[in-house]
Amino acid sequence: MKIRFGIGTGSDTDPETLPALVDRLENAGVDSLWFSELVYSPAVDPVVGMATALARTDRLKVGTSVAILPGRHPVLVAKQLASLVVLAPKRVLPVFGLRPAGAGELDLFPVPGPRGAVFDESLRLLRAVLREDDVDFDGDHFTVRGAGVGKRPDRPLDIWLGGRVPGAFRRIGRYGDGWLGSFLTPDEAAAGVAAINAEAAAAGREIEADHFGITLLLAEDGVPAQLTARIRRQRPEIDPADLVAGSWPELHRLVDRYIAAGLSKFVVVPAGGGPQDGFLDRFVTELVPRQN
């Protein structure tokens, strides 16, 4: 499997620093840069961030970790993705989720029905428009006639999904091309890979073996007490060290366990804010050599 490491911008990355960050990652040979959907934060909008990064680079890949699909019309999302892929073939890595992570942001993504059902139908329509011209679609929540987005990539764009509950695993197996998990122990990630593969097989599909990944928080100088307390409130049965790395050696140990669980793609997010100079230097030294 191809082992790859990318950097997540997190919630505190100042948009004004993005061009310099992109240039540095491109020059250092970092695989990818990932933008989260965090409206009520300083973080740049994922589509704007991806377009900025792609326009400044020739090699760096960009992705969303994750963007919200339910609450957006799938044809408009397909148009955005197709436009980005024409700009930068093979460098656009969209990952979509069910609901936003930011507190109070759910109302910004209104849906015309049950959120899970709208998500499933949105994925069907999104995939159809990214693969075909003149799409006619009749669903419970969307109806379109002759939908098309113009020039599309020769190879259909892979659509990855987030999530960590059984309903998400069912959706990924039926409609997704890959999985980017988060806040899961290595053992839970292994169970997620198995569940997704079982759902895909039941639907007559197959997820490529190297299309499983996870977003990891790294607290370089030890996990702060506030973060430990939050983890214990949300996951009282889990050792925080199985979810967040408190140093670079601990990150390597976690990565080894995730690789053994069947994951090969990693988005590393600094727990203390946006990626700064020291973090970037250490990332290149520690993780770029681990890619194959």
Molecular structure report:
This protein has nine helices and 13 strands. It is an alpha/beta fold. The strands form two sheets. Strands 1, 2, 3, 4, 5, 6, 9, 10, 11, 12 and 13 form an eleven-stranded parallel beta sheet that branches. The model has no long low-confidence stretch (mean pLDDT 94).
Shape: globular
Figure out the total of helices. 9
Our Rg estimate from Cα atoms comes to 18 Å
The topology string of helices and strands comes to: EHEHEEHEEHEEEHEHEHEHEH
Short description:
This protein is an alpha/beta fold.
Descriptive tags:
single chain; 292 residues; alpha/beta; 9 helices; 39% helix; globular
Architecture blueprint of SSEs:
Layout lengths: L3 E5 L9 H11 L3 E4 L10 H11 L4 E4 L2 E2 L5 H14 L4 E2 L1 E3 L17 H17 L3 E4 L4 E5 L12 E2 L4 H10 L2 E5 L3 H17 L9 E7 L6 H10 L9 E2 L2 H13 L4 E6 L6 H10 L6
Parallel strand pairs: 1-2, 1-13, 2-3, 3-5, 4-6, 6-9, 9-10, 10-11, 11-12, 11-13
Antiparallel strand pairs: 7-8
